[in-house]
Sequence to fold (352 residues):
Amino acid sequence: MSHSVKKRKLDKNRQDTLYFDSYSDVTIHEEMIADYVRTNTYRTAIERNSELIRGKVVLDVGAGTGVLSVFCAQAGAKKVFAVEACSIAEQAVKIVRQNNLQDHIEVIRGTVETVELPEPVDVIVSEWMGYALLHESMLNSVLYARDKWLKPGGLILPSKAELYIAPVCDPVVEDRLHFWYTVKDQYGVDMSCMSDFARKCIMNSDITMNFVSIEDVLSHPARFAELDLYSVTAEELRSVKGHFRCESFGCSAVSGFCVYFTVTFTCPDMQQGLVLSTSPFKPDTHWKQAVLYLDAPVSVEQDTLVSGEVSMFPSEDSARHICIGVDFTIGEQKRQTKIFSIPDWSNSEPQP
Fold:
């Protein structure tokens, strides 16, 4: 399909400017703080690690409003360096003062790649996860901070991330595609030919962020990737991939795939650690789930095998935007490949 306007690849400085500007408005911070699962899991993880934080130096990467820094100070940290690149850092300073923690928290305006800290740190805490885990590429900044500032044997919160995939049925999509067959009965005009056009528009190559209902998940989810934040490298993040194998629960139509993630916080008093999950089987979070629509629904029966490989990699147009490639087979159908992306800023002309 041709386009009249060619997508422009943004240079890194422009990508970063647009990214950081998006965090300068109150709305996104309101959404994150209001996400109880997110914010309370971080608070609980920090409290459970208080013995490892008390009297220690902490680095909060991408501190935003500074709420995680405050949690760390409340847990007894001697010093917290709250590094934040966008203008919300000015509000973080006010929040620190309002909580009388200015002697323990220092807000530093800048990217973690460019700022200088007066000393190495014992702990790194960061809420770096984007849509589909890797959207926005903030994990790269955490890894940079780990390699440059974290003392040997230091603590990273969270310390592990895992990615999952499952086939799903989307009844809303089914209803929208069927709608064009109902027009004749309603108005006397046969518009069923619109169904193919509607399918191309709806079941496109965009990564759709949506809440997936439990009853619409058609198999047990399969884990396809795990990232150990103590050892993973920035180079490895350029291609995160893995195989999956699922068996359908019953008769249905696969509209697409659902991708979600979990992150785990090591806790001294919890053998399995504390898990923050964006699974459709868990309470909702602001990350929702990433839905990848097939070109057309595929019917499945009980125990139909759905298998393949998932690969996640940065967009060529904007390195902060994630692409997801799925190479899959459903039942006896031929193997198919589809690449999805989150619509990015490269479609927009730079503002003067």
Remarks:
- The CA atoms of residues 201 and 284 lie 27 Å apart.
- The longest helix spans residues 171-187.
- The longest strand covers residues 252-267.
- Confidence is low (pLDDT under 50) at residues 1-9, 345-352.
